[in-house]
Amino acid sequence: MDVPNVTTPSKIIPGAPTTEQPVEIEITRKPNGDAVVTPKKPDGSTYPPGTKVEIPGEDKDGNPITITVTIDDNGSGEVPNDNLPKKDVPGTGTVTEPKKNPSQPVKVTTPARKTPTLDVEQDPKTGDVTVTPKKPDGSKFSSGTKVEIPGKDKDHPITVTIGEDGKGKVPNSELPEGKTPGTGKITEPGKPTEEVPEVTTPAKV
């Protein structure tokens, strides 16, 4: 997992002007979960390229960190979905234009990363289960991805390997005796495991 840039607060430049305080630091989302950060000036205009925006975040252990975004030519910067916190993090953000000192802070909430989903469908006749993991934008995971769904107990999850069609199969015989709720896990080759809360494995037929 990429570690977000952790920076010390911007250095004060003696005698330099202060960056104009934004009316807001707008954060919108792309379908894949990436956050688009756009600070806006009181007159509605954007800040120049190279402007740094600092917003609150958290590391993988939940400790507070600062996420730094650099504004490009269109007045926005991006934070990859993987670098966003696991939950919304309210706090304050600052904007620092090149060769200026940081603005006064404004309230901003950094949104939680989008998580993948896991569809678990059972064929009522055979009892076999089809497992379909989907990325936040709805696209499929690559073949060879490993998916774990709850099994008969927490030490024995059911592991499925995803095929070319983006799905995996669990035969009826491997299912638990009763419906089993729990957490699913998705591991794409070469990438960190992602957890999916509230996955229920159906009972065998």
From TrEMBL:
Q: Where is this region: Disordered?
A: 1-205
Give the source lineage, highest ranks first. Bacteria, Bacillati, Bacillota, Bacilli, Lactobacillales
Quote the biased-composition stretches of kind Polar residues, using this chain's numbering: 1-10
Would you tell me the protein name for this molecule?
Answer: Cell-surface Ig-like bacterial domain-containing protein
Under the heading InterPro entries, the entry gives: Ig-like_bac
Span of domain Cell-surface Ig-like bacterial:
112-204
